[in-house]
Write a structure and sequence with these properties.
By secondary structure, this protein is mainly alpha-helical. The protein has helices spanning about 5-30, 35-55, 60-85, 95-115, 130-150, 160-175, 195-210, 210-249, and strands at about 125, 180. It has a single domain (about 5-249), classed as CDP-alcohol phosphotransferase transmembrane (TM) domain (Four Helix Bundle (Hemerythrin (Met), subunit A), Up-down Bundle).
């Protein structure tokens, strides 16, 4: 059976994503946590490229979809969970194990649900927090903590880690929730002029270059908080409209 070399290309990027995720776990195990966190972010680039390359070359396949999901479990499920655990989660005993374990399990459930319901969902939204976003949230806050400890040697990481463990558990629950998050995959730029888009991108890249950790942490935190804030807003609107309708009756 003859294999088209083009089919190998997107899966090569998917395999690289898995390999980088394993590297991240390995470096976290030996205490090189900052490098491990950046490797997870690098894996995000490969994860974004494989699907786009497959669509551009017309080499999308059922195998590629399943392979990509398995890669996401490793790179964005196992890797950030183990980095968090090795960095300080083990200090909290069984609670640290539970947070790391649930993060991986809920991430796998999120991916399985996405694969099963992807044709029935709205094209511009995700049902539940995407696992790559959850991974970026965890590792960016860990990088933020490391940067804070460099600038302020008197700073105690114990003040920061326990809240992060609880927040990571909340993030894991958000992955299997029905909270909707915006999807930028099919975002149209037709309404924006080319010049404005370039200017905004240059400003964003300049800020990212000057303050990479703070920028990533701020953006991903806003994205994670957007889902619950949006859901709360619509619940409040629904209750207000119902109360006004009841009062008119």
């Amino acid at each position: 059976m003859k294999i088209d070399p083009l089919y190998i290309l997107p899966n090569l990027f998917t395999g690289a994503s898995i390999y980088i995720g394993i590297l991240a776990v390995s470096y976290a195990f030996v205490g090189r946590f900052e490098l491990a966190c950046w490797l997870v972010l690098m894996s995000l680039i490969f994860d974004g490229l494989d699907g786009r390359i497959a669509r551009l070359t017309g080499t999308t396949s059922k195998f590629g979809v399943e392979f990509d999901s398995l890669a996401d479990v490793v790179a964005f499920g196992v890797a950030p969970a183990m980095i968090l655990f090795f960095y300080g989660g083990f200090h909290y005993g069984k609670f640290g194990v539970v947070v790391a374990g649930l993060y991986v399990v809920f991430g796998a459930i999120r991916l399985a649900r996405f694969n099963v319901t992807t044709n029935n969902n709205e094209p511009n939204v995700f049902i539940g927090l995407p696992i790559p976003a959850a991974a970026v949230f965890v590792v960016s806050w860990l990088l933020f903590e490391m940067e804070l400890s460099k600038q302020y040697p008197q700073y105690s990481e114990s003040i920061f880690l326990l809240p992060l463990m609880f927040v990571s558990l909340v993030v894991a629950i958000l992955m299997v929730s029905n909270v909707r998050y915006p999807s930028f995959k099919k975002m149209s730029f037709e309404k924006f002029s080319f010049g404005k888009v370039i200017v905004l991108l240059m400003i964003a890249l300049a800020i990212l270059y000057l303050y990479p950790i703070y920028s990533i942490t701020t953006l991903i935190s806003l994205y994670v908080c957007f889902g619950p804030a949006r859901a709360t807003y619509y619940i409040c609107i629904r209750h207000l409209s119902k109360d006004s309708k009841d009062s008119k009756e």
